[in-house]
Recover the amino acids of this structure.
């Protein structure tokens, strides 16, 4: 399965090397991200969103999906799911009240 970045580059006939230069990252790093062998850092994901004019948004990377509401106001906020064995008495109850809890 193609990553969103791979699809963007293919659809827009952009070479990985040219894209790496535009993003300001090494071509080897971009190649790993394009091929799904590495996840981008927050900084790189933000640069990718900027360079692609939002076509490859930061929230398309699974590790940043929870942050999508910060960059796209009005978008539904993903609801994290916690297992009961992860519960901790030190967790802020206002945060927990907004989460779904499932048993594992």
């Amino acid at each position: 399965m193609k990553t969103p970045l791979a699809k963007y580059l293919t659809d827009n006939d952009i070479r990985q090397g040219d894209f790496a230069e535009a993003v300001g990252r090494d071509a080897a790093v971009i190649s790993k991200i394009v091929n799904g062998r590495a996840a981008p850092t927050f900084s790189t994901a933000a640069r990718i969103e900027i360079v692609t004019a939002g076509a490859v948004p930061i929230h398309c990377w699974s590790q940043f999906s929870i942050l999508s509401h910060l960059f796209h106001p009005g978008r539904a906020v993903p609801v994290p799911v916690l297992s009961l064995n992860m519960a901790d008495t030190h967790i802020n109850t206002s945060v927990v009240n907004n989460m779904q809890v499932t048993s594992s």
Notes: Confidence is low (pLDDT under 50) at residues 80-104.
